[in-house]
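Subject: sequence -> structure tokens, single chain

Hey, anyone have a minute? Need the predicted structure for the following. Not urgent.
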Amino acid sequence: MHPRERPTTRRQFLIRAGMTVGALSGADALLSACGSAATSATTTNASGVLMGPGGIPLARRDHPVTLPIYSDNEAIGSGMNLEKGPLNLFNWSAYINPAVVRKFENEFGVKVSITTFENEQEAWQKLTRSVGNTGFDIWWPTVDYISRAVALKLIQPINHSYLGNLKNVWPSLQNPYYDQHSRYTVPYTVYTTGIGYRTDKLKKAPGDYANPYDIFWDSHQYAGKVAILDDDREAIAMTLLRRHLYDVNTEDSKLINRGGTDLSQLTSLVNVKVNVNDYTDIPSGATYISQAWSGDMAGAWNYLPKGVPETVLGYWRPDDHAETQNDMISILRGAKNPVLAHAFLNFILDNKIGFENLYWNGYMPPLTAVDPDTVIAKGYIPKNLASTVVRESDFKKGVTIDALTADGQALWQDAWSSFKAG
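Reply:
Had a minute. Here:
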């Protein structure tokens, strides 16, 4: 399974689990039942700031959040001895270079065990069955799960005395808006969402349009060869950006429903595909145009048929207001190897290790030493796919998909479900 491949959407997961859209998981229900209105997943505080489960504000770029540290869930002490392992990782499938894992094992003389998940909902359900006793030391969460994990005391605060390599990280992500002061997480990769395409199959590339997103609605001749990501937030966000609406976390039902209607047009216009196969379908020619993640396209040349040059691949994303985000790593509360877990986080933030991971999975680590020009010059990413490289300046100018209230999440899922139902 490819790093960011998410075959199960949130709505599909809820249906399979026998829940209704907008319903809370057992863990979220526990959080929202803590006793006061302030802990509800759908309230605002006196300043109008959206509040998430556990009474923690929902982080936004213009509203950074410092996550609370609780007296019964504090960071480990400094100067502790390393445990003997094994270190147990809970990670996305195929999201870390096996050679990097082996290097860690050799350097620290321990074994590393990796358990994988295919989507964050699956991970959340597994982790919240036994908070504080998950059996894992490290987990790769996404932004929309962090505050819930903190409120539930699922992850533990980080002791920065063990993280000398945090200085290698972009300044903006040493102190990220979703976790001010990096209390609970360190960044892992950064990426954008844009348009992947076959340069040899199209009469007009996305950049040839006044509004490049229009290519999806103006490709009648490529019917059956056009795709969007099978992800409600990604797909509807694209319709908002097409209309120059940059709040991709809106909870305005009119805007969300119109986004669903815009997507429905693609069914009749181009018989749009809905999947997460951008990294294989574009190289194979099964798809000519696809909404795509930058890291997928950076590695797509590996899937080209023999004899097909890498120059047939293209990737477009806007210079401003590109959808950008980063994934991160956290240490679980109750980890049996917390010192070793800190050592692993520090290891991942090493510049050389960042390069090795990038070469293997195509996703940029937000490390200052991973210079975009060097990445391209050394062939980590083909020159024709230079637009997949994410600079810190790109990240600062981008828009991010963040956590919603439970009501907001239901609105997005319902619009998405209506589109997929035809």
